[in-house]
Amino acid sequence: MNELISVIVPVYNSEKYLSTCIESISNQTYSNLEIIIVDDGSTDESYDICKKWAQKDARIHVIKQNNQGAAKTRNTGILAAHGEVLYFVDSDDYIEPNMIASMYTIMDRECCDCVVSSFRYINDKGEELAWYTPQLSDYQTMSGQEAAKIFLTTFDIEGFSWNKLIKKKLIQKHDIHFDENKISFEDMFGMFKGILYSDRVSFYNDKPYYYRQHEVSCVHTMDLRKIENFKDTILQIKELAQKNQLYSESEFFYLHRMILQLFSILKEKNVYADNWNEIKEKCRWDTIFNMSFYRVYQLMQPRLKDDKIKTWIKVFVVWLNFSL
In this structure, which topology does domain 5-218 adopt according to CATH? Predict the structure, then answer.
């Protein structure tokens, strides 16, 4: 098969990396692409760069909108897409030339709705970071329900939009979209829905996506609103998982992810000096977890795999700082 694949690129003030990103898509070995670039009101040279690339490659279509945020930008791309398959690339990242072809081959062969890839973390200079990345070699094609369990209990699928090749009919059937009320973590719940509601999910173990980390990246800069976005998103996923009979997995997911996030905030406590008391009040143990330390232990211990001692140190530190 040779279906049209729509690649959606949300852009906002990414002039430094944008040409590298677009070039990596334009040079894909899979050629039947529609490349939809949505500029979200950039104030730098990003829009002009996009237009120049559109003159070079007739498959590139540029949409310009007033600044409305990353979620709205991706949703605009989905509405404009004509392809039967969708793929997302962030404008400061880039992909290897055979990425889309390799993932589509798996999708076609396995008759699946979604293919998940691994990826590489890189720094601002393009150097690979020694961070944990998904280990997918042990996974075979499976149902969406089984893949959802992996999403909830490991870090091997994650809620990123850009490590998934996904059928548009799945997105349309289940109204999967990006949450325009959030400024961060806006893709996580929608991608969990996509995994959960897929008839079949497959995996691509290579690391063909280069995920660039900056000091201003969301993962490095948390404020009170982002913390609230994270908490709301994790709770949404937990509730949907429970509606689909994934009770123990959803409890573990919520507790584990919230504790790791709160521990990360504690490590950077000096950054939040101006509003630390407000953060501490919003993230009180009894507010976030509504259960004792021992109950958290009972729910988490059976599903923890690696670094159990380190994890329990983190749980204790979070409990100590947010319960007093």
Answer: Spore Coat Polysaccharide Biosynthesis Protein SpsA; Chain A (3.90.550)
